[in-house]
Amino acid sequence: MTIDTLGGAAGLWLIAALVLGILELLVPGVFLVFLAIAAAITGVATLALADLPVAGQLASFALWSVVAVLVGRRWYRDFPVAGDARLNDRTARLLGETVIVETAIEGGRGRVRVGDGSWPARGPDMAVGALADVVAVDGGVLIVAASSPPA
């Protein structure tokens, strides 16, 4: 298949749209997708208007890029993507977790099991196997309190 079978310049714009769409998937940033949309619209316009000059094609791409970005900005403002502000903060994600005392907490210090890992902990004296709640994190040390039984 050659570019001429795709409609010459229109085919190039459609290929550019495809490449930009693939790049958006490989390097997500929610920006290249808008350029891909603009390139696709320009490709279809160039296919419909076979004698559209290169300047007209570039102007179409620029115009549709601006329109797509503005529509995208409006969309993300009206329908924000819910995210987790603590996504990359592992210690903050531990707040409120119930953990198991692994090494008895004596004199305010011990270790707790979190999932398959072990963390240093500070808190009131607790025996091995006791349940504790993470109430704070201080420099990689979990601050724990005795877990209250579920009501």
Automatic annotation (TrEMBL):
| Residue ranges constituting the NfeD-like C-terminal domain according to the UniProt record | 92-144
The record's section on InterPro entries has: Membrane_assoc_protease, NA-bd_OB-fold, NfeD-like_C
Q: How does it sit in the membrane?
A: Multi-pass membrane protein
Subcellular localization(s) per the UniProt record: Membrane
Keyword Cell division among record annotations? no
Membrane-spanning residues: 6-23, 30-50, 56-76
Give start-end ranges for the coiled-coil region(s): none
Q: Does the keyword Membrane apply?
A: yes
Q: Which Pfam families match?
A: NfeD (PF01957)
Domain of life of the source: Bacteria
Provide the Gene Ontology terms for cellular component: plasma membrane
**Alphabetically ordered keywords of this record:** Membrane, Transmembrane, Transmembrane helix
What name is this protein filed under? NfeD-like C-terminal domain-containing protein
Q: Which organism is it from?
A: Sphingomonas jinjuensis
